[in-house]
Design brief:
The chain has helices at 13-23, 48-62, 78-82, 87-90, 122-129; strands at residues 4-8, 29-35, 68-74, 101-106, 109-114. The protein is of the alpha/beta class and 131 residues long. It has one domain: Glutaredoxin. A 5-stranded mixed β-sheet has the order 1-3-2-4-5, sandwiched between helices. Probable thiol-disulfide oxidoreductase that may participate in various redox reactions. GO terms for molecular function: protein-disulfide reductase [NAD(P)H] activity. InterPro entries: Thioredoxin-like_sf, TXNDC17-like, TXNDC17_dom.
Length: 131
Amino acid sequence: MPLKTFDATISNFDAVFDKFKSEAPNYKSNLILFLADNEPSTNRSWCPDCVRAEPVIYKKLESSSDDVALLRAYVGDRPTWRNPHHPWRVHPTFKLKGVPTLILWENGEAKGRLEDHEAHIEKKIDSLINT
């Protein structure tokens, strides 16, 4: 089975996350990637770490022989993300500090994470997936 992706924004996250969780038992690995929105004027992410990490993450997940589900959660534009009360910054499970953040989701909880400065490192992605 190829990589299955789910896309969510702040406004529809709860519904998409529920679907992701309900389908999680069908996959060997379930990951959540919190990342920046694209700038409308350039159609590129405003976050340089996301620009660097996304292709590496997608390559690793798409080349996996295991069934993998990926929930991509877009944090919003830069001013939205910079708000210290952003819902995913204060969320009791996610407590995001930066983007991108890649979280391994197992048995209803976050089992591991890679944050902004390390989310592009292939060895660390492999370690997270094979935890």
